[in-house]
Design goal:
There is one protein chain. By secondary structure, the chain is an alpha/beta fold. The protein is 47% helix and 15% strand. It has 13 helices and eight strands. The chain has helices at residues 36-47, 57-83, 90-108, 126-135, 155-166, 185-202, 217-221, 226-240, 266-275, 293-296, 298-309, 325-338, 350-362, and strands at residues 20-29, 113-121, 138-145, 174-178, 207-213, 248-253, 280-284, 314-317. The longest helix has 27 residues, at 57-83. The protein starts with 19 loop residues before the first strand and ends in a 5-residue tail after the last helix. 41% of the residues are buried. Residues 5-10 have low confidence and may be disordered.
Length: 367
């Protein structure tokens, strides 16, 4: 359990308190530092999640603790060190900025909503942030995933973490979940705007690669909609950019282990394009809403090296949506729609709330 997980003690109900709404923006997570010990702690939590690795525990845990963590922690820490900023992890910085800007956007639209962010693995944990929101009086919480495409390995794991926290509570807030927005018009428009702006500043490529995070192929056959939702995002984005089928390729990155994952794989795709005569390729990662190790190191560094080594001449990585204004507006629209029916704009009646508390106290309520 993360060190900042809440104790089982529940927050007490307080009479005369206005119903409050909160949004918790949940991203995957990041180590606290680009060091082997910090990365080991992060990987142990991440790869120890049954949603992420579905191999039976009796088989997987000895491999994880006896082989993977001892060998991979230092290598991964070295990769993290290449993208680390003076202010810390890029993924954490971008997620924090998104939450702050979303709070501002909602306020400008007249919504009385508190916005916080959490990481599924690492800090701040989902449990600690939910507890903080509940302790601050939140009675309705929207869980807004940073994953546009639903997957059991990501979105469902967030739901698991929320459920685990809820089991520790006597008075559970009303909870809603945003499971997907892979085809949301605002999200697609924000992606198109981000790519078009890059092209206005740097010119257009011969070919655009849209690289999504990979998952084992078996998840598709077991009913996970992730592959289909990635494909729909790509189709809609291609239409928004007026790209033909020969101008764009969808691929999947971040393979792990020996099992077959969703294809085609990103690095071989880049190499094939270069060997086929493509001189310039641009790569965007629509499945990531914040730049992170998988985009800044795996694509912008390793992908670039693979393309150039195979004969390509010019490689452009197009950054994620991060805190782009168009994306914040789209994210706000998604949040507002999912909060439909929750009163977030009317000011509470202070006199009525005081009268409610007075009546409750007269009946013997402690608070």
């Amino acid at each position: 359990m993360p060190s900042d997980a809440p104790s089982p003690a529940a927050h007490a109900h307080t009479h005369g308190q206005a119903a409050q709404t909160a949004v918790l923006l949940c991203n995957l997570g990041t180590p606290d530092a680009p060091t082997p010990p910090a990365v080991r702690r992060y990987l142990a939590e991440f790869l120890g999640d049954r949603r992420v690795v579905e191999i039976p525990r009796a088989v997987w845990l000895p491999i994880l603790y006896g082989l993977i963590l001892p060998l991979r922690s230092a290598k991964s820490a070295a990769k993290y060190a290449t993208i680390w900023t003076p202010d810390g992890s890029p993924l954490k910085l971008w997620t924090e900025r998104q939450a702050k800007r979303l709070q501002g956007w909602l306020g400008e639209q007249g919504h009385r909503v508190r916005v916080a962010y959490a990481m599924r693995y690492g800090t701040p944990s989902i449990a600690s942030q939910l507890q903080a929101l509940a302790d601050a009086g939140a009675t309705r919480i929207l869980i807004l995933s940073a994953y546009p495409q639903y997957s059991g390995t990501t979105t469902a794991s967030v739901i698991d973490a929320v459920g685990a926290w809820a089991r520790t509570q006597r008075h559970v807030p009303e909870l809603r979940f945003v499971n997907r927005y892979h085809d949301d018009p605002g999200y697609i428009a924000a992606l198109a705007h981000r790519i078009q702006r890059h092209w206005r500043e740097h010119g257009r490529p011969e070919h655009l690669v849209l690289s999504f995070h990979g998952v084992p192929e078996r998840t598709l056959h077991l009913g996970d909609p992730y592959h289909c939702e990635c494909r729909k995002t790509a189709r809609l984005l291609g239409e928004a950019l007026n790209l033909g089928a020969s101008q764009m390729t969808v691929s999947f990155q971040s393979r792990f282990g020996k099992a077959k994952w969703l294809e085609p794989y990103t690095e071989p795709t880049l190499q094939a394009l270069a060997r086929g005569g493509t001189k310039r390729v641009d790569v965007a990662c629509p499945g990531f809403t914040s730049d992170c190790l998988e985009t800044l190191e795996e694509i912008a560094q390793e992908g670039r090296d693979a393309f150039l080594a195979a004969g390509g001449k010019e490689f452009h990585y197009i950054p994620c949506l991060n805190d782009e204004t168009e994306w914040i507006h789209a994210l706000g629209g998604i949040a507002v729609r999912h909060m439909g029916g929750w009163e977030t704009q009317r000011q509470p009646d202070a006199k009525e709330l005081a009268a409610q508390k007075e009546r409750a106290m007269a009946l013997g309520a402690a608070r």
